[in-house]
Structure formats: structure tokens, C-alpha cells
Amino acid sequence: MYAFIPVVLLSTITFLLLLPSEPQTAGISSQHQQYHRVISLSPSLTRMIIDMNAESRLSGVTSYHPPLQKDIPVVGTLVNLNMEKIIMQKPDLVILSGEDNPTQFTERLTSLSIHIKKFAGYTTFNSIAETYTIIGSITGKQELARKKLNQYRAIRKKILTRPEAPVDVLFLLSDRPLIAANHTSFIGNIINDAGGHNIITTTRHQYPVITAELIIHKNPQVIITTSSSTSQRLKELLGDNVNHLDAIRNNAIHYISYDPACYYTPGDYVKTLAEFRNIFNKDTQQPAHIP
Fold it and tell me: What is the pTM of this model?
């Protein structure tokens, strides 16, 4: 993903640490009206809309967004919305997710009778699939969404594994400070589906700040990181103790891009699942493959 995302991520996580761990949810009905002027305040929801070829329905996005085929008005950042720009677009629907919602104060939009749909936070493939189905309905792409979702489910089923001895894994979103993904998070569930065991299990926060001492204590066999400087950072923090880490001794620190790992969409879920599976099975089994 883009270079400035760690700043947005860290500011969002800092805010989330002050909140209860349960995500906000919104009522979901079985029937959904179609909308033609949709503003998406979530990069992942924007990506879902693009994935089902419904970009023409977008009338606004945040400054951090997936690649677009046409110019779409930017209505602010993830943490600083421009309400005037949103109102100027005259949307018939504004959508946002539980991951972004705590940092997006949309009470004014509600007071102006602008229709808002808040989707629950995502931790599992099924929760993402539910949102994907609804996005297909409100953008008039029900059949395409259903077809693509069936394809993603089939891919996930082929890759899904539950080994008797799962590999111990640490996933780091940041190394300054050390921010990990715990076992109940979106990333944590992908690790589990790929046959890994997330070592961060003792915190109620899905993306906690951890200590270098905890890493030594848990001694992960594999470290997956979105920062290319993690190996050097661990050496700075741990000194000679870094050589006691299995992940260091086995050269098992793996750098991956934010894209697709940190997008909450079915397609990005299965891409990341395949990448994790390949990491865990490196030099031992055939790599996972996405058709």
C-alpha cells in the first residue's frame, strides 16, 4: 500500500485502544434499495465496489483509496472528513465500516438526513462475505457479487488447512512501535486458516502495542511484517538476544505488502491466505495457488 498508510494506521489504532474491543454493528435487512450516488469512507468498501465493476456508483471516496479508473471527488481522509464536500456531492448513501467508524464522526450527516450505512467490523471471511453480498445488492451487482463470492469461497476451501502442529506466527503491522495482530483479528483469522498459530493471544485489543521482551518470551517460528526494517529493528531492541529467536535463526522473517493483506475484501483475503500458506509451507509442501 502507499507510504503514508502507517501514519493513518497508527493514529487509528491509538484511538481504538481507548474504545471497547467489540466492533460496532449495524442492522442488516434481507432487502436493499439500489443507490446511484454512493460515498465510501472505507478503502475496503471502495475496493469491494471496484471488484464488482460498480465504480460508476461512487460519488466520493477518502484520500486513501484503491486505484480508480476515473476521477472521483475526495471527501477527506480516514480520520478527518470534510463534511461540506460530502454534502456537496449530494449522495443518496454514505457507507463506512466498523474499522474506520470510531475515527469518523458522522453525526452531522445523520442530522442532515443523509442516509448512512455502517457495516460491522470484520474478523472472519464470513463477515467480509456478508458485507460483500450487501454491497452487491445496493450497487445493483447482485449476480456478479454472488458469482465472484462463490469463486472466492472455492479458493479458500482449497487452501484452508488445519495441521496437527501449526507453526507459531507473529504478524507485525509496525515495528516503530511494535504493533501486532492478535488471534481474534482479521489477520489472526487468516493466519489460522493458513495453518498457523498466532502467538498474540493474551490481549483484548486486536492490534496491540507489544514489547520486544514478549517476542523473546513467545519465540515465534515465523515473523510476518509489513515493514522491511523489522529485522534491523529487532536487533536494535534485543541486542544479542535476537539470535535466540527461532525466526531469526531460521531466516524466517517475511516482508509482505500492505496490499492485499490489509484490505478487508474476499479477494484480498484469499490472496493473503495463499501467501501465508506458502510462507508456512516453505520448502516442505507444494505452494498454495490461486487459479
Answer: 0.83
